[in-house]
Design a protein that fits this description.
With about 230 residues, the protein is of the alpha+beta class. Strands 2, 5, 6, 7 and 11 form a five-stranded mixed β-sheet that branches. Strands 1-8-3-4 form a four-stranded antiparallel β-sheet, with no helix packed on it. Helix 3 packs antiparallel against helix 4. It is elongated.
């Protein structure tokens, strides 16, 4: 599937698809309008499906005595999974999600009570920006690994490269532009776009569940999505 095409290339492809129409109009040469439609279609398709090639794991270094951390910048927080691990020695230990008040009666982070390994994590807003907290406070440095969907590349310039299938994006964008122009073949273009989307999802969809052992991931456990509701203190 063609990925990595630039906004400029997508724009020319949309223009070409629209010029095939029996009802071509001058609107297909409105550059800013075409690119805005492409960006929105791209955003909707990215949000609509967990594309397997966008699934990643991201590591974050944990420091001794540090409680709160920023998330990796290229990880989409709203599509971060509840699944996280702490590397303890050579083993990736699954972390439980949620730090409860009762936990602080065992190791009180407010009192700088440190222990290894890290056992739990959760999302919290202390500074006005969502971060994650680890519990107990680590006694030594380590690594936390998250799984989720990486942030998409923004199509902010003509040279920016798209992360999704370009044919799918082009067909959806062309169908919308042709419909606005009253083209008779807009519906058939939309049908092609929808068929392409189904085909791409079918090719990339993986079944099974994922687990992590050592530095390996296999398909045995699928993490559940977090419904982002973090604690403000």
């Amino acid at each position: 599937m063609p990925r990595g095409e630039t906004l400029g290339e997508l724009t020319e492809q949309v223009r070409h698809e629209c010029r095939k129409s029996s009802n071509a109009s001058r609107g297909i040469d409105n550059l800013s309008h075409i690119q805005q439609v492409i960006r929105r279609v791209y955003e909707e398709l990215y949000d609509d499906f967990d594309w397997p090639h966008m699934k990643v794991w991201k590591d974050k270094t944990i420091n001794a005595g540090q409680r709160y951390y920023d998330f990796p910048s290229d990880l989409n927080l709203e599509r971060t999974n509840e699944e996280a691990y702490f590397k303890y020695g050579s083993v990736w230990v699954p972390l439980a999600y949620g730090v409860d008040p009762e936990d602080y009666t065992i190791h009180n982070s407010d009192d700088d009570d440190r222990a290894d390994p890290v056992l739990k994590w959760h999302i919290i807003d202390v500074t006005g920006t969502p971060q994650f907290e680890v519990w107990p406070l680590p006694a030594s440095a380590g690594t936390v690994r998250f799984t989720g969907i990486k942030s998409k590349t923004d199509l902010s310039s003509s040279s920016a490269k798209c992360d999704l299938d370009s044919v799918m994006i082009v067909l959806f964008a062309a169908a919308e532009i042709l419909e606005a122009a009253g083209a008779a073949d807009a519906r058939s273009k939309l049908a092609k776009a929808q068929a392409r989307k189904i085909r791409m999802q079918g090719r990339t969809q993986k079944t099974g569940r994922r687990t992590m052992t050592g530095d390996q991931v296999d398909d045995k456990r699928t993490p559940g999505d977090i419904r982002i509701s973090y604690t403000s203190t």
